[in-house]
Write a structure and sequence with these properties.
This protein is an all-alpha fold. The protein contains five helices and no strands.
């Protein structure tokens, strides 16, 4: 399926590579940075789709899966150790609800950030942000 689609489009790199490249570009020339100008294509992936060497390799898949599980385990351990090193007493924990977020947003005049406004249809009457206009 991918081989048929590749002739009609380009492959893009993983999201973390794209973000990393954007950060590097911005750091090197912040005044001239244009985020849409960053190349997100990945020619190596396009070549792999057309002529698979790794995509059909179960050994590579098992190795990748093992690395992902290992990274997840390391992250959980790091997070657990950090929480133990910097405990927050129960009486100092912040408890916030969605209603609190909505009320704070309305009080601070942040209605223009409402997600409904990003859609072509405009404001929605059932939205708590839009309905206050």
């Amino acid at each position: 399926m991918c081989q048929r689609l590749i002739s009609a489009a380009e492959c893009i790199g993983p999201h973390h590579w794209i973000i990393e490249e954007q950060v590097k570009r911005h750091a090197s020339r912040p005044r001239n940075f244009y985020w849409q100008g960053v190349d997100v294509g990945m020619a190596a992936l396009e070549a792999e789709v057309v002529n698979p060497k790794f995509l059909n390799d179960d050994t590579v898949a098992a190795e990748s899966r093992g690395q992902s599980f290992g990274a997840e385990k390391q992250f959980k351990q790091l997070f657990r150790e950090a929480r133990e090193a910097f405990p927050i007493p129960d009486n100092e924990r912040i408890q916030i609800t969605l209603q609190d977020v909505v009320e704070l947003s309305l009080a601070e005049g942040n209605r223009s950030r409402c997600c409904c406004r990003t859609h072509l249809h405009g404001a929605r009457p059932d939205c708590v942000f839009c309905s206050t206009d």
